[in-house]
Design goal:
Largest sheet: 6 strands, mixed
Protein name: Cytochrome P450
Keywords: Plasmid
CATH superfamily: Cytochrome P450
Strand order of the largest sheet: 1-2-3-11-8-4
Family: Belongs to the cytochrome P450 family.
Distance between the termini: 44 Å
Organism: Streptomyces clavuligerus
Number of strands: 15
Structural class: alpha+beta
Shape: globular
Strand content: 5-15%
CATH topology: Cytochrome p450
GO molecular function, one term: oxidoreductase activity, acting on paired donors, with incorporation or reduction of molecular oxygen
Number of domains: 1
Length: about 400
């Protein structure tokens, strides 16, 4: 279902339907008539200005902490891990975790790895660039995303299949089918917890000059991460870093296949990799909505919002809002207002430096090698809501001479 059910002048969408498309023409039409819509979950905010304001609104808290409960998962290992996320903490509890985690996620850490990201993208592309086709998820996006995480942590890159396999299943927790997938998701979580425990024990025995050692030994004024905090944060990093990069790379190739002139331009101007990454995330973000929850009753733009209301900020709708960006265009040279692909405000994504860097390095390498990019008809996608991306992405292309 992609069309709104009318209720007065306010559109209504069944956002819990796996067939719903958050990027549909119906959503864009609704954006022209109203800054918000009603959904299965609560409110959806459709326009850039309102999303930007509500990201920082003092009467809203981070709302995805309630995601599992709203989908029928209220207890068990997944619910416990979900509640532990720094993303889901508030106030001083959130600030404490963020202070301890921030140094390990610094821009310096990401910048130091840029040559390795570029070399990895080249290695993976070399394996299929002389053919006229590939399955992009299996041959590039998954190994690239998983090996980037291995580089960041300082673990052997050949262990990437463990990261990829379990993280891909754990990512189903972010989708509208989480209840149906719960058994598989919790098995993947248990495997990643065991893997994290091994890594943490190793770094406690032998400190090294790597990300994981900085995380294990992070100390601010005598305060350190506890054992469970370390394990849960490490699993979140492994899963979040893998899932975001894998999905966003697939969405980037989908976007460039629709805009072949921009793909050719990127091949000629590889220095535009960072801008290309930002433009892709603006128009086709893997994080389709950012969730907030009303802490108390309040009124916004004339709308009464009761305490406990789920408020979803729809990132693609806001990122392509013609009130800010003009008629739809995809231009990797354009200077834009900030997008919302990494959230914003108090809960801005901790790992955004690394995600931006690895995507920016990969795209020019691919553009130089794969000409006339097309997506085959048998591509398979996750539902177009929550966090999305390709499950299977067969590409057709002309090898560069």
């Amino acid at each position: 279902m992609t069309g709104p059910a009318p209720t007065g002048s306010v559109p209504v969408f069944d956002a819990a339907d796996p067939g719903f498309s958050i990027t549909s023409a119906a959503v864009h039409r609704a954006r022209e008539n109203s800054w918000y819509a009603r959904t299965t979950y609560g409110l959806a905010v459709l326009r850039h200005a309102e999303v930007a304001e509500l990201l920082h609104h003092p009467r809203l808290r981070q709302g995805s902490v309630s995601w599992l409960a709203r989908n029928g998962v209220t207890e068990g290992p997944l619910a416990d891990w979900w509640a532990s996320w720094v993303l889901h903490r508030e106030g001083e509890d959130h600030r404490r975790l963020r202070r301890l985690l921030n140094p390990a996620f610094s821009s310096r850490s990401a910048t130091a790895l840029l040559p390795r990201f570029r070399a990895l993208a080249t290695e993976l592309t070399d394996a299929f660039a002389d053919r006229d086709r590939c399955e992009f998820v299996a041959e590039f996006a998954e190994p690239y995303a998983a090996r980037v995480i291995a580089m960041l942590l300082g673990i052997p890159e050949q262990e990437w299949p463990v990261i990829a396999r379990e993280s891909a299943v754990l990512g189903l927790a972010l989708g509208v089918t989480v209840r149906q997938d719960l058994d598989r998701v919790e098995r993947a979580l248990a495997a990643l917890h065991a893997y994290a425990d091994e890594l943490i024990a190793d770094r406690r025995r032998r400190e090294r000059d790597d990300f994981l050692s900085r995380l294990v030994h992070a100390d601010r004024d005598g305060d350190r991460l506890g054992d469970e905090e370390l394990r849960d944060s490490l699993v979140l990093l492994v899963f979040g870093g893998f899932d975001t990069t894998r999905n966003q790379l697939g969405l980037a190739l989908q976007t460039f296949a629709r805009h072949p002139a921009q793909w050719r331009f990127l091949a000629d101007r590889p220095e535009l990799g960072a801008r290309a990454a930002e433009e892709v995330i603006r128009v086709n973000p893997t994080v389709r909505w950012i969730t907030r929850e009303a802490l108390e009753d309040f009124t916004f733009r004339g709308l009464d919002i009761p305490a406990g209301t789920t408020v979803q900020l729809w990132t693609e709708s806001a990122g392509t809002d013609p009130r800010v960006h003009g008629p739809y265009s995809f231009d990797i040279t354009a200077e834009r207002e900030p997008h919302f692909g990494f959230g914003g405000g108090f809960h801005h994504c901790l790992g955004h430096f690394v995600a931006r860097a690895d995507i920016a390095e990969a795209l020019p390498v691919l553009a130089r090698r794969l000409r006339d990019l097309r997506i085959a008809e048998d591509a398979v996608w996750l539902p177009d809501s929550g966090n999305t991306g390709p499950v299977r992405l067969p590409l057709l292309f002309t090898p560069a001479p």
